[in-house]
Automatic annotation (TrEMBL):
Protein name as catalogued: SMC hinge domain-containing protein
Biological classification of the source: Bacteria, Pseudomonadati, Pseudomonadota, Gammaproteobacteria, Thiotrichales
Gene Ontology biological-process annotations: chromosome organization
Signal sequence annotation: none
Cited InterPro entries: SMC_hinge (IPR010935)
A GO MF term: ATP binding
Residue ranges that the Swiss-Prot or TrEMBL entry lists as coiled coil: 3-30
Length: 102
């Protein structure tokens, strides 16, 4: 290969890296938005049960590089599930709430 070909490949690799870094930043922003505690009803319920500061699964699990997509695919919306140190009795959710806070 000539020096010019190698330089072209290097430039392409750098460009791809930059695009991937941009995509990663976008995905991290979306993920963070998904973790936001913006819903007032939910926040109130969490606060009433002293869970408003409890960590979410996505905040505590460490995922090996390359497995992020599988991790997010398997857990889906459960990434926002609350982690407990010790189980405590909670007010049951209304019938048919399907895991969502009223």
């Amino acid at each position: 290969q000539t020096q010019r070909e190698v330089q072209t490949q290097l430039d392409q690799a750098r460009s791809r890296r930059q695009a991937l870094q941009g995509r990663l930043a976008s995905l991290e922003t979306l993920q963070q938005a998904g973790l936001e505690k913006a819903d007032k009803t939910r926040n109130q319920w969490l606060k009433e049960h002293a869970l408003d500061t409890a960590p979410r699964i996505a905040e505590i699990l460490k995922v090996e590089a390359g497995w992020e997509s599988a991790f997010e695919t398997v857990l889906g919306e459960d990434l926002d599930a609350i982690c407990f140190k010790t189980p405590s009795p909670l007010t049951p959710l209304p019938q048919g709430a399907r895991g969502e806070i009223p």
